[in-house]
Amino acid sequence: MNMSRRTILKAGLAGLAASAVAGCNNGAANRPAGEVSYWLWDSAQLPMYTECAKAFQRKFPQYSVKIEQNGWSDYWNKLVTGFISGTAPDVFTSHSSKYPLFADKGQVLAIDDFVAQDNVDLGIYQEGLADRWVGADGRRYGLPKDWDTEVYFYNSALTEAAGITADQLNSMTWNPKDGGSFEQIVARLTVDAKGRRGDQPGFDKNNVTVYGLGFGDAGGADGQTSWSWYAAGNGWKYSEGEPWGTKFFYGDPKFTETIWWWRGLITKGYMPTLAQAKSGVDVTATFGAGKYAITPNGSWMLGTYGQLKQVKTKLARLPEGPIGKRMSMMNGLADSIWAGTTRKDAAWAWVKFLGSQEAQDIVAKAGVVFPAVSASMPAAKASFAKAGWDVTPFLEPVEAGNVFAYPANPNAADVSAVMTPAMESVVGFESELSSLIKANDDVNQILSANS
Length: 451
Fold this sequence. Notes:
Layout: H1 3-14, E1 35-40, H2 46-59, E2 64-69, H3 72-85, E3 91-95, H4 99-104, H5 112-117, E4 143-148, E5 150-155, H6 156-161, H7 166-169, H8 180-189, E6 191-192, E7 208-213, H9 228-233, E8 239-240, E9 247-248, H10 253-267, H11 274-277, H12 283-288, E10 292-298, H13 302-306, E11 313-316, E12 328-337, H14 344-354, H15 357-366, E13 370-371, H16 377-386, H17 392-400, E14 403-405, H18 412-427, H19 435-449
Parallel strand pairs: 1-2, 1-3, 7-10, 12-14
Antiparallel strand pairs: 3-12, 4-12, 4-13, 5-10, 5-11, 6-7, 8-9
Helix pairs in contact: 1-3, 2-15, 15-16, 18-19
């Protein structure tokens, strides 16, 4: 999300209040009786949720579903506008970093009474997912729909040319002092214009044609697909009270030394500059063009990487860090109900159905994301295997319990507004690592002022 859109989002949310939903009907009077409006942002998931809507309507003929899909940035801006204007959808796909503020502003309906009334079994979901949708106030604001972790996507032709085996890639270690075997592999995969590798004499770090490691951005406040697993593997935590951060630790030495090492890969020529990474061509397209040997990304990107037919892409585990574990962020989405809907029963029926195994089996067979219902996972694994993916590296951290939550708090937009430019300044070599201490102080002042 760029800064101008983030500012718009923050400004809009600042004006929200519980009273804003009073008397709003999001155009319900002009829609067919029993119709539920539903929004999502991922175009890859539109077909499978269209199938879910058909199954839902067959099961509950008194209801129908109208789906609207918008891209990530437009989605959130339009949703906030909908909250303010009373035109928000009855049900929407929600993110764990967004709903705490929406709930705090009275824009999301707590569904505890519905869950209790219908005896919804929350034990069917992957461990920990249902808990992520219980807010700091102890109330539930959604039912899980899917989950994700991170791995390395690698160009197998480039690794083979470098003499690096799959076993080496899947047994990498990392530390902030010398980068461990991970940095050695990244160096080996980096190639300059004269064909010299990053671990060979004469390597020209200023004239690189293939970077060993690609990245998309400086990571902002969460670093989900950039640095989060290095920091966690170094024993760092985002905050006290995880995932509901009450005091953040972006100035902690375990974090700053991690970023110091990570930024150093740019200095060594093994990773592009921040300006190159944000040049307008995204990380997957650059990977697909053969310019990056390895790129970290989340499981939701499997479909995108699968479309890169010019390269043969495989998956590798994240490296083992100094704490002796391979850590990964585990996040998940949920379906939530807008507090201003006048069709609560219909909206709940749709949310309940989407959270059921019946719906998540449809999601699983599409082979796009990992379903939240544990019993639906075998079908998902089979679908991904059919598409040529061995998704084991995504699953192992979850099975081992080596996962950490996406940081959440009602002030996430303000925290992001501080940490995104702070991280960009550091990774762009405009500021020293010590500036993160000041940024962390600013974040904690925001939390203190709003507690």
